[in-house]
Design goal:
Length: about 150
Amino acid sequence: MQHLVAGALLLFPSIASSQAYGRATIRNYALVRANVVVKYAACRTDAFVVSQGRASGDTVIAGVNEAPTRRGACLITSITATLEGDTATVLPYLAGGTSYSQFLLAPALTVGREVKPLNQRARWELFSKQKYKTLCLQSTTNKQACDR
């Protein structure tokens, strides 16, 4: 009987870890800190601060932080942010539920002639890394600029 219990204990952690999603990681390209809230489907909300980006020549090196708790099998439904000391609107990341774990807080992108997002007052937006790259490739001829 002891062998069955020990075997079960060894088996279940491996099953749980194989279904666990990575912690939400935010790369912040704003030059001020961001207060971030990550909401999950049917799980506890995370709130944390992401350090500011820093200027290096004509580029910005992102500040990076990850959610403080492990999310297990929880899907992300939204991420919101406010910039410390800045009244600029930050458009949220919204999803029905995503397993993505890599996100960017970056300037809102222009795609073709239409501002994406449509809210012209918004200077910042939260993107999944995948969505940012797709939109960036549509809005620039500098393909290397899209590898954030």
